[in-house]
Amino acid sequence: TQSTWDIMTADESAEKQATETDTSRKLFMEKLDVDEEIADILISEGFTSLEEVAYVPIQEMLEIESFDEDTVTELRTRAKDALLTMEIAREENAEGVSQNLRDVEGLTPELIAKLTEAGVATRDDLADLAVDELTDITGQSEDDAKALIMTARAHWFTDDAAETADAAEPADADLASKEQ
């Protein structure tokens, strides 16, 4: 078996880390309503998500030198509130998703949530996407995105074939009645 290694250069690694840090900083500043300094302290202590801030053992957060108990309690409360608000919004968005999109084979609730956030609400919306658009939205591999798009497009061909057959039947019936 041959394996391939995906090795990053030092520059690529630094760029990836900077991007991840920036993403976490923006998340914390927006969802926790904190300044850049607090966000950077959380990041430097290894926090990368709201879930971690909300649910890490309180003692672990109290060990952060810059935070007192009130600060920790407030951060945890804000993180839990933000997570709850995001989940409610996700559920409300999911209600706007058509049943035909939900029925597309291979779509998980997580993928549906990502599609909904990007404004994809129907099977045809999904079918109209280009592979790179879908990978940008979902983070899937190109192959998975291609397969999902083709699955979403399948009804175009089966519906067209059925419509063509339906359209041909009356003409055949008319021809048959004229021949008699």
Question: Outline of this structure?
Answer:
This protein has 180 residues and is mainly α. It has helices at residues 10-31, 36-44, 50-55, 58-62, 69-95, 99-102, 109-117, 123-127, 131-138, 142-179. The chain is flat.
Percentage of residues in strands: under 5%
> What's the β-strand tally?
0
* Spatial shape: flat
Instruction: Provide the low-confidence segments as ranges.
Output: 170-179
Helix and strand run: HHHHHHHHHH
Mean pLDDT comes to 85
Distance between the termini: 70 Å
**Which class best fits the helix and strand makeup?**
mainly alpha
Characterize the largest beta sheet: strand count, sense, and whether it forms a barrel: none
Cα-atom radius of gyration = 25 Å
* Approximate helicity band: over 70%
What's the total helix number? 10
Structure description:
It contains ten helices and no strands. With 180 residues, the protein is mainly α. α1 packs across α2 (36-44) and α5 (69-95) crosses α7. The longest helix is centred in the C-terminal third of the chain and has 38 residues, at 142-179. The protein is flat and about 65 Å long.
